[in-house]
Design goal:
4-stranded antiparallel beta sheet, 7 strands
């Protein structure tokens, strides 16, 4: 995700995540030149909700700060950016910052909605190249829509956790303050699922910080490839295990209330 700052390049996936998304897209529809515009992400049964639809998000066009030379592989990539449905928590004073925890360059939010803005194909590719990840320009038409849809699904799962607390506090609702990707750091639950229960390990992990009207709640998200990934014609299938971290009293309380069926 990213802002309207033309140099902001957000959320480039790592090599493992990129390969997982590409493999699922090709297996889901091997004859298509592009992936479905709104792939569905299936969550574990305890967190099941309808998949997100990226077509509901508004598209916006930005201008590149410079015209790439013809030899630049990103020169043919699109610059259209999509406004997410995820509200952004902005600083309340000039001395504060809400820069993403992964230190990506980023400022502001969409002026009309206050929401995060996803990177264009060109920005996504440039960010991966800058981080020395293996990437092909032709992959961007596949990766970027999946990236956007999966992030929308992650936010939908967070809203399932947050809605009862936001309604109780009568506030305007939660906003995403920052996020970071830590694919190499497996969570305790992921280790249990992998080493004890025998499931495939998650291909990615994100840590998101949510501002609920002044209350900061940290979430962890494990991304798993779906079981139907090898079935031709199946919708893209991802399992998102989203839950508050147990590193604060708020996270412990939310988990306990969830366990008791509240």
């Amino acid at each position: 995700m990213a802002s309207q700052d033309p140099v902001a390049e957000k959320c480039p996936v790592d090599h493992k995540t990129r390969e997982t998304w590409l493999a699922q897209a090709k297996k889901a529809n091997p004859s298509a030149t592009q992936p479905p515009s709104s792939p569905h992400a299936a969550a574990p049964s305890t967190l099941a909700t309808p998949g997100c639809d990226s077509s509901s998000m508004e598209a916006t066009q930005t201008t590149s700060p410079h015209t790439p030379p013809p030899s630049d592989p990103s020169s043919t990539l699109g610059t259209t950016r999509v406004i997410s449905t995820i509200p952004r928590a902005l600083p309340t004073s000039p001395s504060q910052t809400t820069a993403p925890a992964n230190s990506e360059r980023d400022t502001g939010a969409d002026k009309a909605t206050g929401n995060w803005i996803y990177p264009s194909e060109r920005m996504f590719f440039d960010a991966m190249r800058r981080k020395s990840h293996s990437a092909s320009p032709t992959d961007m038409s596949t990766i970027v829509p999946i990236h956007n849809a999966v992030n929308e699904r992650a936010w939908a799962e967070i809203l399932r956790w947050e809605t009862p607390f936001s309604e109780a506090s009568k506030c305007s609702g939660p906003r995403l303050e920052s996020f970071s990707g830590t694919a190499s750091a497996m969570t305790p639950r992921a280790r249990w699922n992998t080493h004890v229960l025998g499931y495939k390990p998650p291909f990615d992990r994100h840590d998101w910080v949510v501002d609920r009207c002044g209350t900061r709640v940290e979430y962890v998200i494990d991304f798993y490839a779906g079981r139907d990934e090898g079935v031709e014609g199946k919708a893209l299938n991802f399992y998102l295990d989203v839950r508050p971290k147990l590193n604060s009293w708020e996270g412990v309380k939310m988990r306990a209330l969830k366990f008791m069926g509240w």
